[in-house]
Amino acid sequence: MAKQGILLVVDDNRNILTSLQYLLGEYFERVITIDSPVTIPTLLNREAVDIVLLDMNFSSGINSGNEGLYWLREIKRLRPQTEVVLFTAYADINLAVTGIKEGAADFVVKPWENARLVQTLQEAYSRIVEARKGKKKAAVAPVASDDGMYWGNSQAIRPLRMLVEKASTTDANILITGENGTGKDMLAREIHRLSNRKEGPMIAVDMGAITESLFESELFGHVKGSFTDAHTDRIGRFEAADGGTLFLDEIANLPYHLQAKLLTAIQKRCFVKVGSNTQQPTNIRLICATNRNLEDMVRNGEFREDLLYRINTIHLHIPALRERKEDILPLAKRFLEQYARQYGRQVQAFSPEAARRLLEHPWYGNIRELQHTVEKAVILSDSDELRGDMLQLTSTASGPEPVAGNAETEVPFHTLDEMERSMVKRAIDQCEGNLSQAAAMLGITRQTLYNKMKRYGL
């Protein structure tokens, strides 16, 4: 059989990379190996990778698999058509289910069996081939157009929808604010869909996930030889978004000393690649998002006032889900139908008890929490009606976190995840949103803290 497909292997063990290079090189056209996931976005921009074999743990002493899940989400966001097979030495069925829920094709446990590993990867590539054939067939027949995001009909959301419809057709810079899980990224994509730039690219950048050392390279690109690992020229996000929309998510996580570089690029509408002296113009529409109060950050000296003015031409605030209760059941119904199709379940509706619980729950994690709750319930469902107990709405998710040090008010934790979520939130609250201080308090890196915030919807 002729070798086909481009495979990317990401593992921090160089011996494993060498072994897999020899083994898998017999079956795939190209096998690329890297020992750090940090360069995954760069590589996906440069290479048409078909499959990624992704290790679940990279930081020494941390074996939770959270890093692997984070990079799985990033891969599926950057290149949805790429299949991801997770690779771990820790055979945890819950982790496997979580990975598959997040879009992984399969799960392989170390130490691996060569035949099983090759079969899993080849099956993943076969799905890609079938998907490409399906796209070609679909191109012949008319397809339904994308109707965009679901707005709902609550009184709280109507003013926002009217403002979005007016602002989308302009090129004004937009700042989207709202609690975690309210759908800021979805709103940014809706603005792009409604804009005059909809035929251009929509490039999203998670500012909290970019390390300080790679900031300029990620946003502005670099030229070959500009630093040790710069083996080829690379375009940055500003250049990739030319003619379209650049979405900077979690803009508040950009360190103060780097904000001036972003401001300069926005003001001058041009940038300079790392290692180059040539200014390059860019034609973008800028959308930023954050869950923090940037005006308070300006007063505290954590965010530049001039940068805030530049990104805040139009301010859109998404109300929390608990402020638009009329939309809870319609949203839950949409998620129910979506995941019933995805997981092949027969469930079609919520029982009266389940509907009551959905309406009474405060949803501090907003739409993201609702979505994950319904998805998990659908996976567990065994009939055509989803019962209330399947929602697994625990007391720890339905109220404020207990006060530190007050044992009498502590809510009993049922899982380690619940305990970890409480500790992370408490540290962030005690540090008043300063992520560097919170990370130091918890004894973890800022990047690890950010990954945990993403996981727990904080």
From TrEMBL:
Superkingdom of origin: Bacteria
Chain ranges of the Sigma-54 factor interaction domain: 150-379
GO molecular function, one term: sequence-specific DNA binding
InterPro entries: AAA+_ATPase, AAA_lid_NorR, CheY-like_superfamily, Homeodomain-like_sf, HTH_Fis, P-loop_NTPase, Sig_transdc_resp-reg_receiver, Sigma_54_int
Listed Pfam families: AAA_lid_14, HTH_8, Response_reg, Sigma54_activat
UniProt key word Endoplasmic reticulum: no
Keywords annotated in UniProt: ATP-binding, Nucleotide-binding, Phosphoprotein, Transcription, Transcription regulation
Gene3D superfamilies, per the entry: 1.10.8.60, 3.40.50.2300, Homeodomain-like (1.10.10.60), P-loop containing nucleotide triphosphate hydrolases (3.40.50.300)
Modified residues (4-aspartylphosphate): 55
Domain Response regulatory: 6-125
GO biological process, one term: regulation of DNA-templated transcription
CDD domains tied to this protein: AAA, REC
Protein name: Sigma-54-dependent Fis family transcriptional regulator
Source species: Phocaeicola coprocola
